[in-house]
Specification:
6-stranded antiparallel beta sheet; alpha/beta; single chain; 35% helix
Length: 404
């Protein structure tokens, strides 16, 4: 039984202490290892859900009449306007021992049923930026380290929101700072700065003051950096500066949203970046996804459906060990505990550069990269499934089988 449920059972709702209830909700989420808390009015209840390993799980249902009180309490904690309920608001709650020692980022959004509140949890104690902790397979980790050892060029990470791009990019910067120490100048432009790194100059975009990515990067180029990190390439101007920086002796690391790893080139060409500039500047693209791992405390043999088994090659089936978590209190009865990274490491060699120069479509670039030895997200995930680390259903949740 969680703290919130115990507290609710101990008091009558009309005499409830909202401050204590909110603290219980946050501590329950922290103890469960959640990344986010969703507090949302439904038809008859105020539902509280937590995001565990990327998937929302119900924590508790509260009486709907508590919405205004819970919202008001959280707004006070985040120094927001408590009486404003018809406009979005965002705020920050600093680390507090009463809340489990975590920092909170609060987002309040008005809906037709009332305000929906989403709380992002940042636990300073669990922040580790060692490359070995990313969950990359050995081959992918070795290639990533080799890319980071290059003196110049553009490294791009791509994947949907919540796929581990920020953690991977911070780990890369931490690796570079630890390897070179004070002999290398590393600077970042981010929106927002999510964690302060040692020996790294970090800047945060402020659009209200017209401190945008392009303006920050132009100024940063005069700061004599060897390594530049750009939080995200969102527009043509930022893309052009990033490509130019990669061509002029800087190691540039950034993220970009794309439907696939090879699709990054088409996305940048659509931003009017010439193919010859892309082929010369991009040294690698890393596709990322996060897949939930089976809970080791309730692991048991599994026999997937025959339709799912047809997706596995005969060679893999011969040595496969399919496992699945049955669900226990440790994993909140989900069958999963923790996540691991699936990677698609596209290293730009001469063959791929020629294909980019010819403006080959994304599917053709993907085939060229596979021909040069790139292991796809689907292949990496299927290897993990066949070793009993996850399930085919979970793999299909994050990766399409036609990406193999």
């Amino acid at each position: 039984m969680n703290q919130t449920t115990r507290y609710l059972q101990a008091v009558e709702f009309q005499f409830i202490e909202i401050g204590k209830l909110v603290s219980c909700l946050i501590r329950d989420a922290v103890e469960a290892g959640a990344s986010d808390i969703h507090i949302e009015p439904w038809d008859s209840t105020l539902v509280v859900r937590v995001r565990l390993s990327g998937v929302l799980t119900e924590l508790v249902h509260l009486p709907l009449e508590l919405l205004d009180k819970v919202s008001g309490r959280l707004k006070v904690m985040a120094d927001l306007i408590s009486y404003q309920t018809d406009l979005p608001q965002e705020g920050h709650v600093p680390a507090d021992p009463e809340l489990g020692g975590v920092e909170l980022r609060l987002s309040v959004f008005p809906t037709v049923r009332g305000e929906k509140i989403v709380i992002r949890i940042f636990d300073p104690r669990s922040r580790s930026f060692e490359l070995t902790g990313l969950g990359f397979d050995n081959a992918s980790l070795s290639m990533f380290v080799q890319l980071l050892a290059r003196p110049s060029g553009l490294i791009l990470l791509t994947g949907p929101t919540g796929s581990g791009k920020t953690t991977a990019i911070y780990s890369a910067l931490y690796h570079l700072s630890q390897r070179a120490g004070p002999t290398v100048s590393i600077s970042t432009v981010e929106d927002p700065v999510e964690c302060h790194l040692p020996m790294v100059s970090q800047a945060q975009v402020n659009r209200a003051r017209e401190f945008t990515y392009p303006i920050a990067l132009r100024s940063l180029m005069r700061q004599d950096p060897e390594v530049i990190m750009i939080g995200e390439i969102r527009d043509a101007e930022t893309a052009a500066i990033a490509v130019q920086a990669g061509l002029t002796g800087h190691l540039v690391i950034s993220t970009i949203h794309s439907g696939s790893t090879a699709g990054v080139f088409a996305r940048l060409i659509n931003m009017e970046i010439e193919p010859f500039l892309l082929s010369s500047s991009i040294i690698g693209v890393v596709g990322l996804r996060l897949i939930r791992k089976n809970c080791e405390r309730c692991l048991q043999p599994d026999q997937p459906d025959s339709r799912l088994l047809s997706m596995v090659s005969p060679d893999q089936l011969g040595s496969a060990t399919f496992m699945k978590g049955r669900g226990c209190s440790h994993c909140m009865h989900t069958g999963f505990s923790g996540r691991s990274a699936l990677t698609e490491m596209l290293v730009a060699d001469e063959v791929l550069r020629d294909a980019v120069l010819k403006k080959l479509p994304t599917r053709s670039l993907q085939e060229v990269a596979k021909g040069q030895g790139m292991k796809t997200l689907w292949q990496t995930g299927l290897e993990s499934v066949c070793k009993g680390r996850s399930t085919i259903d979970e793999l299909l949740r994050v990766v399409s089988s036609d990406q193999g």
